[in-house]
What we know:
Blueprint: E1 3-5, E2 12-14, E3 16-19, H1 30-42, E4 47-49, H2 58-70, E5 78-83, H3 97-111, E6 116-121, H4 130-142, E7 146-151, H5 156-169, E8 176-177, H6 187-192, H7 194-200, E9 203-206, H8 235-241, H9 246-262, H10 267-277, E10 283-286, H11 291-298, H12 309-319
Parallel strand pairs: 3-4, 3-10, 4-5, 5-6, 6-7, 7-8, 8-9, 9-10
Antiparallel strand pairs: 1-2
Amino acid sequence: MIYQRLGKSGLKLSKLSFGSWVTFGTQVQVHDAEKLISCAYERGVNFFDNAEVYSHGLSEEVMGNALANLKLARDTYCVSSKVFWGGDKPTQMGLHKKHVFEACHAALKRLRVDYLDLYFCHRPDVDTPTEETVRAMHDLIQQGKVLYWGTSEWSAQQITEAYQVAREWKLTPPTMEQPEYNLFNRKKVEGDYLPLFENFGLGTTIWSPLASGILTGKYNNGIPQDSRVTLPGYEWLKSRIFPEGSQEKIEKVKAFCVLAQEIKVSPAQLAIAWCAHNPNVSTVILGASKVTQLEENLAAIEALPKITPDVVKRIEAIFENKPDAPVDFKDS
């Protein structure tokens, strides 16, 4: 495993990490979660990602119970949560101080830990002043309940404002951002955030490196019967993977699969390694419901040396450097 600093902080995260989005609490329960976390941990993964909204809190419970059962030393791994969608009532949503605090305490209980290593503002909250959110995060850090706070899917302008507020009021600024990043969604990481990397040392914990699975090639000939998108409640994922005009996307993936075969890696490994190759990516969050799937994706770390300038050039030619606009939805 390779370890990289989280932005300008001294914390080193594994270049590949493991998240529970759309798996824990739905497809994966505690017993299987133990196997997955153990597989990742044994291969050097030290960051496990979660959020209050994933399976309405059940995802954190599953992860917390699995971590407790495995009895991993707390000083050997990092765990995260995200705050924004905690319920339907006004006090259960957003980034106002009450919900930030309540969500943190609930996450600590569900994850069965004394503190969160990373705590993300899951989306920007236009109804709450930035100063209120920054101060709430600063207070949690002062209380020892959170070590590092960050954002997820915030614009460069919103993150810059958070830094400015923190500087003006001598509060703790955000350390990291969690954006979607893959060969179909590149604008923020490769464009908008460049000044933030240079000026603030922003770290990134990127999600969906496989673009919801399409970059694995498994949808090249239609939707497999055992695919996640066939499960009840996952209709949103199907529409995300197959939007209008998706055939052009599939054709690009087919060419990408040919390249992967040529350099003797799987398409998934090539897509993940391509993300990890970006020096501004602190860690790539992987998702999996089966150990075999996770093992294959973790092997992407061994494919990194194959991301040569020539391979990068050929990938650019396939995707024509024209990333699609991201689709926003609350469970990411």
